[in-house]
Design a protein that fits this description.
Blueprint: H1 6-16, H2 34-44, E1 48-50, H3 59-71, E2 80-82, H4 93-99, H5 103-115, H6 120-123
Parallel strand pairs: 1-2
Helix pairs in contact: 1-5, 2-3
EC number: 1.2.4.1
Protein name: Pyruvate dehydrogenase E1 component subunit beta
GO biological process, one term: pyruvate decarboxylation to acetyl-CoA
Protein backbone atom coordinates (compact mmCIF):
# COMPACT_ATOMS: atom_id res chain seq x y z
CA UNK A 1 0.00 0.00 0.00
CA UNK A 2 1.35 3.41 -0.96
CA UNK A 3 2.05 5.83 1.87
CA UNK A 4 -0.31 8.79 2.02
CA UNK A 5 0.93 12.10 0.70
CA UNK A 6 2.39 14.34 3.42
CA UNK A 7 -0.16 17.10 2.80
CA UNK A 8 -3.06 14.72 3.49
CA UNK A 9 -1.31 13.29 6.56
CA UNK A 10 -0.90 16.82 7.87
CA UNK A 11 -4.56 17.62 7.16
CA UNK A 12 -5.61 14.55 9.18
CA UNK A 13 -3.45 15.59 12.13
CA UNK A 14 -4.82 19.13 12.00
CA UNK A 15 -8.38 17.78 11.81
CA UNK A 16 -7.85 15.78 15.01
CA UNK A 17 -6.80 19.05 16.65
CA UNK A 18 -9.93 20.86 15.45
CA UNK A 19 -8.34 22.67 12.50
CA UNK A 20 -10.08 22.19 9.15
CA UNK A 21 -7.43 22.39 6.43
CA UNK A 22 -8.59 22.80 2.86
CA UNK A 23 -6.08 21.02 0.60
CA UNK A 24 -5.90 22.08 -3.03
CA UNK A 25 -3.83 19.72 -5.14
CA UNK A 26 -3.09 21.74 -8.27
CA UNK A 27 -3.13 19.57 -11.39
CA UNK A 28 -1.14 22.10 -13.37
CA UNK A 29 0.66 25.35 -12.81
CA UNK A 30 0.11 26.58 -16.34
CA UNK A 31 -2.58 27.65 -16.43
CA UNK A 32 -2.61 28.34 -12.70
CA UNK A 33 -6.08 27.80 -11.24
CA UNK A 34 -6.28 31.24 -9.68
CA UNK A 35 -10.05 31.04 -9.24
CA UNK A 36 -9.85 27.96 -6.99
CA UNK A 37 -6.93 29.35 -5.00
CA UNK A 38 -8.59 32.72 -4.43
CA UNK A 39 -11.95 31.13 -3.60
CA UNK A 40 -10.21 29.13 -0.88
CA UNK A 41 -8.48 32.21 0.55
CA UNK A 42 -11.79 34.09 0.58
CA UNK A 43 -13.38 31.16 2.42
CA UNK A 44 -10.61 30.39 4.93
CA UNK A 45 -8.89 33.80 5.21
CA UNK A 46 -5.54 32.00 5.27
CA UNK A 47 -2.94 30.72 2.80
CA UNK A 48 -0.27 28.07 3.30
CA UNK A 49 1.64 26.98 0.20
CA UNK A 50 3.64 23.76 -0.08
CA UNK A 51 6.21 22.77 -2.67
CA UNK A 52 9.32 20.61 -2.76
CA UNK A 53 11.25 23.08 -4.89
CA UNK A 54 13.54 25.86 -3.77
CA UNK A 55 12.02 28.64 -1.64
CA UNK A 56 12.82 31.36 -4.18
CA UNK A 57 11.15 31.83 -7.55
CA UNK A 58 8.82 28.85 -7.23
CA UNK A 59 5.16 28.20 -7.75
CA UNK A 60 4.48 29.13 -4.10
CA UNK A 61 5.71 32.65 -4.80
CA UNK A 62 3.45 32.86 -7.86
CA UNK A 63 0.46 31.64 -5.82
CA UNK A 64 1.20 34.28 -3.19
CA UNK A 65 1.32 36.97 -5.86
CA UNK A 66 -2.01 35.80 -7.25
CA UNK A 67 -3.58 36.13 -3.81
CA UNK A 68 -2.00 39.56 -3.25
CA UNK A 69 -3.46 40.74 -6.55
CA UNK A 70 -6.93 39.24 -6.16
CA UNK A 71 -7.70 38.51 -2.50
CA UNK A 72 -5.29 40.40 -0.25
CA UNK A 73 -8.09 42.05 1.75
CA UNK A 74 -9.41 38.61 2.75
CA UNK A 75 -6.19 37.48 4.47
CA UNK A 76 -6.41 37.50 8.26
CA UNK A 77 -2.80 36.36 8.74
CA UNK A 78 0.51 36.48 6.88
CA UNK A 79 0.98 33.81 4.22
CA UNK A 80 2.98 30.74 5.24
CA UNK A 81 5.23 29.25 2.55
CA UNK A 82 6.67 25.77 2.94
CA UNK A 83 9.38 24.78 0.47
CA UNK A 84 12.31 22.46 0.12
CA UNK A 85 15.67 23.36 1.55
CA UNK A 86 17.87 25.56 -0.61
CA UNK A 87 20.28 22.71 -1.34
CA UNK A 88 20.89 20.40 -4.32
CA UNK A 89 18.43 17.47 -4.18
CA UNK A 90 20.21 14.56 -2.48
CA UNK A 91 19.92 10.97 -3.71
CA UNK A 92 20.13 9.25 -0.32
CA UNK A 93 16.68 8.75 1.23
CA UNK A 94 17.72 9.96 4.69
CA UNK A 95 19.16 13.18 3.24
CA UNK A 96 16.16 13.67 0.94
CA UNK A 97 13.85 13.63 3.98
CA UNK A 98 15.88 16.51 5.38
CA UNK A 99 15.63 18.46 2.11
CA UNK A 100 11.89 18.22 1.37
CA UNK A 101 8.97 19.35 3.55
CA UNK A 102 7.71 16.80 6.06
CA UNK A 103 4.35 16.39 7.81
CA UNK A 104 5.63 18.19 10.92
CA UNK A 105 6.69 21.20 8.84
CA UNK A 106 3.22 21.48 7.31
CA UNK A 107 1.41 21.12 10.64
CA UNK A 108 3.66 23.74 12.26
CA UNK A 109 3.12 26.24 9.41
CA UNK A 110 -0.65 25.69 9.37
CA UNK A 111 -0.84 26.33 13.11
CA UNK A 112 1.20 29.51 12.71
CA UNK A 113 -1.26 30.66 10.03
CA UNK A 114 -4.21 29.91 12.32
CA UNK A 115 -2.91 31.66 15.39
CA UNK A 116 -1.22 34.71 13.85
CA UNK A 117 -3.02 37.80 12.73
CA UNK A 118 -2.26 40.72 10.48
CA UNK A 119 -0.68 43.48 12.64
CA UNK A 120 -3.03 46.33 13.52
CA UNK A 121 -0.85 48.86 11.68
CA UNK A 122 -1.48 46.97 8.44
CA UNK A 123 -5.24 47.27 8.84
CA UNK A 124 -5.28 51.00 9.61
Amino acid sequence: MKEKDVKFQAAEILSKEGISAEVINLRSIRPLDRATINASVRKTNRLVTLEEGFPQHGVGAEICMSVVEDSFEYLDAPVERIAGADVPMPYAANLERMAVPQVEDIVRAAKRACYRAVPMAATA
